[in-house]
Amino acid sequence: MNPMLTAAQQRDLVLASSSPRRATILRMLGFEFDVVAAPIDEAQHGLAEPVAHVRQLADLKATAGAATRAQGLFLGADTVVVLDGDILEKPSSPAEALAMQRRLRDRWHTVYTGVALLDRDSGQRAVDHECTEVRFHAWDDAFLQRYVETGEGSDKAGAYAIQGLGALLVREIRGDYYNVMGLPVGCFVRLLGEIRPPEV
Questions:
Q1: Among 184, 164, 167, 188, which residue's Cα sits nearest to residue 176?
Q2: How does DSSP classify residue 198?
Q3: How many CB atoms lie within 10 A of CB 30?
Q4: What pLDDT, on the 0 to 100 scale, is given for residue 13?
Q5: Given a cut of 70, is residue 143 above it in pLDDT?
Q6: Quick check: is 121 catalytic?
Q7: How confident is the model at residue 74 (pLDDT cuts 50, 70, 90)?
Q8: Tens of pLDDT along 28-71?
Q9: Is the pLDDT of residue 92 over 60?
Q10: Is the separation of the CB atoms in 16 and 61 below 8 Å?
Q11: Whether the predicted pLDDT of 133 surpasses 70
């Protein structure tokens, strides 16, 4: 239980995601929650504009999760990396991961995460997003290849994990660190307060 929020606000929280990073963040904050898989075909439902893309997918994941149970507060989230207007999703191969790393090298890029909450009890829904700017070091190809070979970024947007070995790639960030991990905590708690206002 998170001591900074009321028990009523945290009741029946369900993470509609199989992401271990999001679960780690919630546990770090003291939340007690269940997890349900909410598979969404991102290629079918994705949009070209990053903010609309992550907000829609987060909402679809929360809705898919809510369809599995009669009650609960369902949390959906979706994260992408954007460079030069291009959305960099999870790489499909090591070669694509290396190509992403080369593009990101020594440049700023933006990480967007959409967050959606859907309360089955009240029917209320809230959706928002967060963005964080990240700049990589100017590592050479050999260094980037060694990172790709670890496999750490194979299932992550932009082909890196800032909370792991990918921290070596990052020179600086502007914004919410946890957004880059996949769950912006300030955005999540703000939406939680909208769906379930604290008791007066």
A1: 184
A2: P
A3: 12
A4: 97
A5: yes
A6: no
A7: very high
A8: 999 999 999 887 776 667 778 999 999 999 999 999 999 999 99
A9: yes
A10: yes
A11: yes
49: Cβ contacts below 8 Å, ≥ 6 apart: none
- Phi, psi values for residue 80, rounded to 5°: -135, 160
Q: Tell me phi and psi for residue 136, to 5 degrees.
A: -90, 160
For residue 37, give both structure tokens: 């898989």
- All structural domains of the chain, each given as residue ranges with its CATH number in brackets, are 7-195 (3.90.950.10)
Catalytic residue, candidates 12, 41, 59, 78? 78
58, 115 in Cβ contact below 8 A? yes
What does 40-87 look like in DSSP terms, one character per residue? --HHHH--SSHHHHHHHHHHHHHHHHHTT-SS-EEEEEEEEEEETTEE
pTM, to two decimals: 0.93
Coil, helix or strand at residue 153:
coil
Torsion over CA of 21, 24, 25 and 27, rounded to 10 degrees?
160
| Amino acid (1-letter code) at residue 19 | S
